[in-house]
């Protein structure tokens, strides 16, 4: 096998059948300088035995770790610590790689090095596609774009999930916070923190196919944030106080901060206001409470 350049990282929870499909797509890769790290977040469907079967085949270098329902963000922390690859490629268990995905990543990264541009970059970022080939978030108006993840979202306005590939050493300096009693933290919290110091090279190439499951994290995003309000508040308060973010996104962040702050029972109103820091943001508390009441009526 070639020198390990890319770590494919997959967090999983009761996704045995989907993990097997992902494994098949990994075996089809034209580029072989990679390892696969799987962090199992407490599966009860025999995922561990399934992975043992993968390892027994000896076709892919696999590291497998088990944790007890700590959440995807903690799984990422563990994967980063164990990674041997220069690049860290997050691929969910319900995704499928295209046959040239790793080749595209390697070529794009080497191109940055050849142009002496790698300094100041945290990695590269490709596109995700639906099974019908359409780009998630819509088509993009670039072949390559060198900007921060913050500018990509909040200045250029690109939407939808993307295929992030980070330099492992940089990602290791930005671990996800671990909060007792909460298990969902949006990856955007750390991606935004990285975006304050580094750019990404965005490429107009699909890296994998995503299937959004009815019981997946994307489908349950609101409910998960409601159950982990401290993480949600942290994300929105940091976004609100990020320089260069337009008023439109600041207003939305203020509304969402208070929307999830209502579900938080750990902190007082004064503590929450100190966290968000912007006094004017209190104006959104009544609107957030109204949304809370509407959501309560849906139960």
TrEMBL record:
SUPFAM superfamilies: Nucleotide-diphospho-sugar transferases
GO molecular function: hexosyltransferase activity
Positions of the Glycosyltransferase 2-like domain: 7-111
InterPro entries: Glyco_trans_2-like, Nucleotide-diphossugar_trans
Name of the featured protein: Beta-glycosyltransferase
